[in-house]
Amino acid sequence: MNAAEILLSVGVDTAIAIECEDRRVTYADLRDRVRRSAQAWQAVGLGTGDRVIVFAPDSDDWAVAYLGAIWAGGVAIGVNPRLSMPELAPLLKECEARFVWCEPNLAQDLRGLVATVPGGPAVVSGGESDWTRALADAEGIDAVQLDAEDPALWIGTSGTTGTPKGVIHVQRVVVNAHSFACNLAGLTAADRLYATSKLFFAYALGNSLFAGLRAGATVILDREWPTAERVEEMVEKHRPTLLFSVPTLYNKMLQTGVAARLADRGIRHFVSAGEALPLAIRQGWREQTGCTLISGYGTSETLCLMLYSDDDSGLMRPTPLTEVRFNPDIGADLPQRIWVRHTTVATGYWKRPDAQVDFDNGWFSPGDMFLRHPDGRLEYAGRNDDMLKIAGQWVSTLWVEQALSAHCGDALHQLAAVGVESADGLTALAVLAVAAPGRWAEARQRVEEGVASLPGHRRPRWVHWLDALPLTPTGKLQRGRLRSLHERHAAAAA
């Protein structure tokens, strides 16, 4: 078995596999380029199981280098190309990669960085290099056949609560990568998939690139970083039929009027994931586009979406082929971690034996908490340390964030709630907020009104105003830093 070979086994030769800028790559062309890329990888010394970092903007070249490494028996790792060299250095040491593939403009900086890393990887790029010559001479090779449980790719966790981890996915990961899109979004070979998130992020890699190729459809890639305006440009030019994005960007599209202009562009389904989808965004999207957002839940460890909701309740069901189990000793009315099983679930983490308890014979337990409803649906309640007992009642920081965000509307740019210990030793809530530009006074007033409208046990005791909240490279909130930020601002206020 070879994951790259499986992904490229379906598409009709003349069908378009990837569109990027003005390039249209057919499945026949993509298969040929991946086969030749694999031979070039082996020519420069890639062995079975060797790790390859792909450090570049999304493009068809990115896909060819990435899939070519897997085809050749290597293990591919997509990395955020916006990382600075100092940010990239510890990652190079951690994953012990054999090669880093990049575009020519970054090669010099990368070689300088690699020279400082003992046993660091070789830099592979275009221009006058062994890689370019090997690629020019390559005629293509058959895919290296491996066991279904042999590594195929790694994905870095987002690091929202601490140090990112390397998630190990094996060759079978792609077999059913299209199950969500096919069964819940009606994906067929005639579809055109566009994800605003980048390919180093599991959401885009699994649910757009892998799902699209697995179904023989067209995958649209963009080198540029997403904005509401850029999404509109991409939709106008490439006419996707399935669009995958995140709540923050959907909200920006609502605020800028982009959402309404997408209403008649032929997009059948809009999918949201990466963070919880507020009800206000779901309702606003339906009002402006006439389409209902499908909200999904997945992680780097699951690659694809495991749970979904398609109504205003926000309550979630398992996606097709996903099994869910619970701790039978915890009552249905109490929040708990769940376990999920699907063929896209990873086998574990790289060199993190203490975290391996989250994996169990094909099952994985995310660090998020859920409440079980009588009809079997699940209510997302945030991470384990986001679920608090205040005044004898359960409170999720997520619930507080959503209520205040809905009350404040676009006067608020960012908001996060965190559980902290008060001077009397009891658990309390603190909120950290960022006002929209030029609207500080309005945002402050709305937050005060919103706090007053909450039930007593859900009211934050502190509200701190900041210039920005800390984000991960994937744009997700770094919740692990919120408590220390509260402590610093509370001390300054005192």
TrEMBL record:
Q: Which InterPro entries match?
A: AMP-bd_C_sf, AMP-dep_synth/lig_dom, ANL_N_sf
A Pfam short name: AMP-binding
Keywords in UniProt for this one?
Ligase
Write down the superkingdom of origin. Bacteria
Leader sequence segment: none
Q: Where is the AMP-dependent synthetase/ligase domain?
A: 15-350
Q: What is this protein called?
A: AMP-binding protein
